[in-house]
């Protein structure tokens, strides 16, 4: 496509707050929307500066360069002078399904992929005021093909029910629906982007842990929390899904942040057996948990630990 980049606002290459999707259920919007697989990975804002340096920024504006040298090498093959790209880094299991828990341990291997899905800036021009469909076309025009492990994230515009069934068969965790004419709203959770999850899954803040009972693991279960109206609420405990390595690393992290008093304002909501020995921790560690459903009392049912989320701020963790 032809576009007069010089007619767009100037924008120096820099980290830009990512646009976020709102949690949604049925009905699925159509037409005028496109649909992408929801990737189980780490959100990345990739920036190429004037000096040709490339930085992979997490949502917390931390560099992830040391973890993904192959991705950096592949991005360096781009001939464009400067750019800002939005995407997701994922580790694929043997069936080709993105796995966040695998990303925690694998980091740099042949199955670690950087999926590109939005172009925010090019040649020091701000593209965020352009419709999504135009930004997608520019992304393909200027960044396809790039060598592995870089891929463009596929999107679909067919009838949503068929798209959802197809994406579900491919074992992705959900779908992101985006208005084709949506502008890029940095730092906002916009209704122009909606996320639909096939399983209930979200981030929680770790607020404590219990002593193990007859287990070689250094802890029994993690106590979970989330913010509601700026109040930290108890969401239940998770005691499964930990590898031995992750459990040991997590225990070290927990003890480094151990505190004497519980971070919750209302202890009555805990409803924990008196036989449990509880340790409290500062509400600064974020993890991701999959679970079957919410109970009537606001607790998770059948939760399974997925992994730590160092790319998420604790204050952003709310019930979805």
TrEMBL record:
Alphabetical GO biological process terms: DNA recombination; DNA repair
Matching Pfam families: DNA_ligase_A_C (PF04679), DNA_ligase_A_M (PF01068)
GO molecular function, one term: ATP binding
Keywords: Ligase
SUPFAM superfamilies in the cross-refs: DNA ligase/mRNA capping enzyme, catalytic domain, Nucleic acid-binding proteins
Database matches in InterPro entries: ATP-dep_DNA_ligase (IPR050191), DNA_ligase_ATP-dep_C (IPR012309), DNA_ligase_ATP-dep_cent (IPR012310), DNA_ligase_ATP-dep_CS (IPR016059), LigD_ligase_dom (IPR014146), NA-bd_OB-fold (IPR012340)
Span of domain ATP-dependent DNA ligase family profile: 105-197
Reaction catalysed by this enzyme: ATP + (deoxyribonucleotide)n-3'-hydroxyl + 5'-phospho-(deoxyribonucleotide)m = (deoxyribonucleotide)n+m + AMP + diphosphate
KW Ligase (keyword) present: yes
Keyword Ligase applies: yes
EC number(s) from the headed UniProt entry: 6.5.1.1
Family, per entry: Belongs to the ATP-dependent DNA ligase family.
Protein name stated in the entry: DNA ligase (ATP)
Species the sequence originates in: Methylacidiphilum caldifontis
């Amino acid at each position: 496509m032809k576009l007069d980049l010089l007619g767009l606002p100037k924008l120096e290459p820099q980290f830009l707050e990512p646009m976020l999707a709102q949690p949604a259920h049925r009905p699925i919007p159509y037409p005028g929307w496109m649909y992408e697989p929801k990737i189980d990975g780490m959100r990345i804002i990739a920036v190429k500066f004037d000096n040709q340096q490339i930085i992979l920024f997490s949502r917390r504006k931390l560099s992830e360069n040391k973890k993904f040298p192959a991705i950096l090498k592949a991005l360096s093959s781009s001939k464009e002078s400067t750019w800002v790209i939005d995407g997701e880094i994922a580790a694929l299991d043997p069936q080709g399904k993105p796995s966040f828990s695998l990303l925690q341990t694998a980091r740099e291997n042949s199955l670690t992929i950087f999926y590109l899905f939005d172009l925010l800036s090019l040649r020091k021009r701000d593209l965020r005021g352009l419709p999504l469909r135009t930004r997608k076309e520019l992304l393909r025009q200027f960044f396809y093909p790039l060598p592995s492990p870089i891929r463009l994230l596929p999107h679909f515009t067919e009838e949503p029910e068929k798209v959802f069934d197809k994406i579900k068969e491919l074992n992705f965790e959900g779908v992101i629906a985006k208005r084709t004419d949506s502008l890029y709203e940095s730092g906002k959770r916009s209704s122009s982007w909606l996320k639909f999850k096939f399983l209930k899954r979200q981030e929680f803040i770790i607020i404590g842990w219990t002593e193990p009972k007859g287990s070689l693991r250094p802890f029994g279960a993690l106590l979970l929390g989330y913010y509601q109206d700026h109040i930290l609420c108890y969401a239940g405990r998770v005691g499964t899904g930990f590898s031995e390595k992750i459990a040991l690393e997590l225990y070290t992290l927990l003890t480094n942040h151990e505190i004497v008093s519980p971070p919750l304002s209302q202890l009555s909501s805990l409803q924990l057996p008196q036989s449990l020995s509880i340790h409290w921790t500062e509400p600064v560690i974020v993890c991701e948990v999959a679970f079957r459903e919410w109970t009537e009392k606001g607790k998770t049912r059948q939760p399974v630990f997925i992994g730590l989320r160092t790319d998420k701020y604790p204050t952003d963790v709310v019930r979805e």
